[in-house]
Amino acid sequence: MVLSLAGRDDYIRLRDLVADPQVQRFLGPPAENPTADMFGRAMRGAGSWQLYGYGMFMVWERASGAFIGQAGVFHTLRGFAKGLDDVPEAAWMLAHDHWGKGYATEAMVTALDWFDTHHGRSRIACMIEPENAASIRLANRLGFTRYDDHILSDGATVWLYERNV
Q1: d(CA 157, CA 144)
Q2: Which CATH superfamily is domain 2-120 in?
C-alpha cells in the first residue's frame, strides 16, 4: 500500500469510488451531482492541507498501482458541536474489492503515525454509523473510543469517537 497526496483530477477517482453502493451506504445519502460533490470535497481536502498542514491521503495498492481509496486526518467543522467542530477528524473509505485485506488498518496506522510525528499527538475525532461494524472495529484498534452519538440532518445516527492524547 502507498499513500500520496491527491492530485487535481483525483476527485474523479473519488466520485467513482463512492458510486459503488457498498462504499456509499455509510456515507449518507448520495449526492444529487456526484461529480460536483466530490470536486467540492477535494477542494475542502486541499484546503485542509493548505491551512492546517494535514489532510486525506489517496491510497494505492503497491503491487498493481490500483487506486483503492482514501484515508487520513483532515480538519473539520461539522457544525453540531459535540467535539467535532474545529478539530482533526479521522476518516477512511476503500473500494469494496479491497475490503478485508488489512489496507484500511495499514493506511490509518500510517496516516496517524504521520500526523503524530508532524503535529504532535492530539485528540482526533471521527464519526461512524452504528451499522458499520468494520469501521467500528478499526476505530477501536486505532485507539478510538465512543464518547457520544448524534442524529444527522438526514436522520442517520452516528456514533462519535475520539482518540485522546
Answers
A1: 18
A2: Gcn5-related N-acetyltransferase (GNAT) (3.40.630.30)
